[in-house]
Amino acid sequence: MLSFLQNQLGRRSSPLRPDHTRVETSRSSLSRSSSAANASSGTSEAPSLTPPTSNTDTASFSEDATAKIGNIERSSDRPRRVRSSISSYNESVLSGTDKRRPRRKTSDDFNRTVSGETLVEGIAEAQNQLIQETVPALDESWERGARPGDGLKVSVKEENGSGRRKSTRLELVGKATAMVEKTSSVLGKRGFETVDAGITKLKGLKGGKTSSLRAREAEVPSFEGSVTKKARFSDTVVEDKTSQSSAAELKRPRRPTKRWLSQGLYVGQERDFDPRLNEAKNQLKRKRQSKDRQRTFLPLPMFAGERTLENGRHFRLPFDVFSPLPPGQPKPDEWRKTQKNVFIGDAASEWKKAKSMECSKCVCTTDSGCDENCFNRFMLYECDSSNCNIGPEYCTNRPFEELRERCKAGSKYHIGVEVCKTLDRGHGLRSNRTFEPNQIIIEYTGEIITQDECDDRMRKRYKNAECYYLMDFDQQMILDATRGSIARFINHSCEPNCKMIKWTVSGKPRMALFAGDKGIMTGDELTYDYNFDPYSTKNVQECRCRAPSCRGVLGPKPKEAKDIRDTLKPLATGGKRKFKQALEDTVGKVTKKRKVTIPNSVKAAFSKVKTRTTANLSKAYALTATSTRNERLVEKISERSLRGIKRSSLLETSETKITKKTIVAMARRRSANGTFLKGGPIGLNTEEEEKDEKVHEKKARPANRKDSSKAKADSVKKSVVRTMRKSSRAGNGKTIRAIGDEEEMED
Ligand SMILES: C[S@@+](CC[C@H](N)C(=O)[O-])C[C@H]1O[C@@H](n2cnc3c(N)ncnc32)[C@H](O)[C@@H]1O
Questions:
Q1: pLDDT digit string (tens) for 143-196?
Q2: Basic residues compositional bias: what residue ranges (predicted)?
Q3: How many alpha carbons fall within 13 Å on the CB side of residue 330?
Q4: Cβ atoms of 543 and 554 closer than 8 Å
Q5: What are the pLDDT digits (tens) for 644-703?
Q6: Range of 155's domain?
Q7: Is residue 361 domain-resident?
């Protein structure tokens, strides 16, 4: 290479120019060299110089040049286009397809020395020095297996201050590098560009095979002579390569992991792409699976969701929303179902059809939507087209209508309740979904029978029955759900989660179970307070509701216990001590008379309610005729509600603060269970009538009951009838129990 450079540079007459004139310099040097060639060949045509294929390919360069010169010499034999431009190439030469002919030796060949003609003094001197110094360096001893470049490393260490002998090699290498830089700068940018372009072209000609241009793999030389340089070069390549590969490893981005959707329309859809397999294997797997599959098409488009919503489809609700019992539950025996109240025997004829229902019309607006201020709601009347000011879209006081609509759908969820088996209370009723507070759950339906019919059934049909499904209804009638709705299975609890309330729907009374103030959760057993009236000591049952405040027996509510105790007094003597004790325990505390002062706030609240209700009434156009009567009615309700609060204060002495809402709710509750509504709008007897009855009963009572068993039986019978009547007057959905002393009654 050096000789070539010397050849080329030696013909220059001018000294090296600065870098920025490099292109021009190379051009001028080449033109000069061509003119020199012209001079030597003695021809008039300008020869073209084929650029070397690589920086180190000096031999080919010189040979090519010589060959060209030879061609020019023979130009008279065969005309050939001579390239004058430096930027054009002999493609056949570059690609190696050029067949080289044996060249003739020229006079230049004979004149050429190792270093060639030296025109640059500095370079020639340096070269001579280099050769002189290199020769002894080559004589250095080499150990077998030593890696080339080791010496270099050692010398670098020494330079860093080990204090050893300074390697002369380094100096030599430094000088050589400087020389190469110098010469390359002389060759110029243009020259390198040309070389690069040639390489690219060569690549193209060889069909993109770049194996010959690829960097050689590092190899430990099996050593001889001048491999040192090569070895050094390859060693640096190795180092570079290892460092590059480690850097590449560091930089190499991690393969991103696929994140699957956790929400959206296609969530839960079967995914048949196994990321562990490649595409081909996945396809094969899919093919195999598709044989068994029916659907192999793509998931439905997005708008299919809307269609699904419109059409509906089967799906499973979460267990806490809907959880029905598994199929195969034990069926209760002897239960005949009826979804509507059925009049039996004389009940239909005795039912006072013409019973004047209080005519009312609510004055609610669409904004309020028959809320708690709705007059109908207050009176436990269901709104309908005849008594509601607003339509069904806005009205929220139509519970039975809501229930009807719900059950029309017919699914288990819509029905919402199912019969379950309890541990020690026979069957029960449980919810299989949630219910809002005060939401209607199920209607209590059955046969409506007269008192006489009830007595008759007791004596005959239910003689040996364990469970009875009798409930005080309306107009002194009994609702017998032995044949009735599923509601008959609802058990009693002293701390119930539901309440049984009688409503008036289209002028007729109807009983239904409503959720309590806390609402109902899925799977809860539904219970209400039976307010049980046993009528006889024989019928007292142990309560197994397990509530913390359990009364211990299936007995009446504390506030009603006094009346019942009075009724049962004649019976609760002698052998009936146990029952008496039980009853005393249950009711004793709450019947103690206490003087209660009603707080002014409560009084004020009630007067407010009264004013509001009167105002509502005066607004109702349907009330013009009956306004005075209704006003009296409101007066009565308020009075009784006040009295109710007075009584309840006995129980709730700790409650000093009663909010207005609570008062309204209480008033409604009193109205609902009828305790304070006797003689009220739902046709209950007046207090006067009640007093008369009591006087009459006292008269009828024998002077000494212990004297005769017949007298005792009569007394029982009368008290039973009286109690039933009394409770039916209350109309509070009280469950009544079979009368136990059948023998006595039969007498
Ligand atoms: C209307 S039925 C209720 C359904 C009844 N468990 C069944 O299997 O048909 C009323 C009867 O259930 C029983 N019962 C209801 N609640 C009870 C309770 N808390 N403790 C004990 N027995 C109860 C009593 O025998 C009662 O007479």
A1: 444 444 444 444 444 444 444 555 666 666 677 777 766 655 555 555 566 667
A2: 719-728
A3: 9
A4: yes
A5: 444 444 434 433 333 333 333 333 333 334 332 222 222 223 344 445 445 544 444 444
A6: 2-234
A7: no
Residue pair 611/572 in contact (Cβ under 8 Å)? The answer is no
At position 376, the amino acid (one-letter code) is N
- Give me the amino acid identity at 445: T
Whether 488 is in a domain gets the answer yes
**Contact assessment for residue 531 and residue 556, using Cβ atoms and an 8 Å cutoff:** yes
Q: What type of residue is 27?
A: R
The domain tally of the chain equals 2
Distance from Cα 422 to the centre of ligand 1, integer Å: 10
| Residue from 479, 482, 492, 739 to probe ligand 1 pocket by mutation (most atoms less than 8 Å from CB) | 492
- For 461, 539, 701, 710, 744, the CA distances from 747, given in Å and listed in that order, are 18, 19, 17, 7, 5
Strands annotated E in 578-676:
none
Give the ipTM. Answer: 0.99
Residues with CB under 6 A from ligand 1: 425-428, 467-469, 488-489, 491-493, 541, 543-545, 554
DSSP notation for 252-286: SPPPPPP---SSSTTTT------TTS-HHHHHHHH
What are the distances in angstroms from CA 500 to CA 373, 523, 529?
A: 22, 19, 8
* Ramachandran angles phi, psi of 353, nearest 5°: -65, -40
Query: Given 178, 200, 234, which residue is the final one in a domain?
Result: 234
Total residues found in the chain within this entry: 747
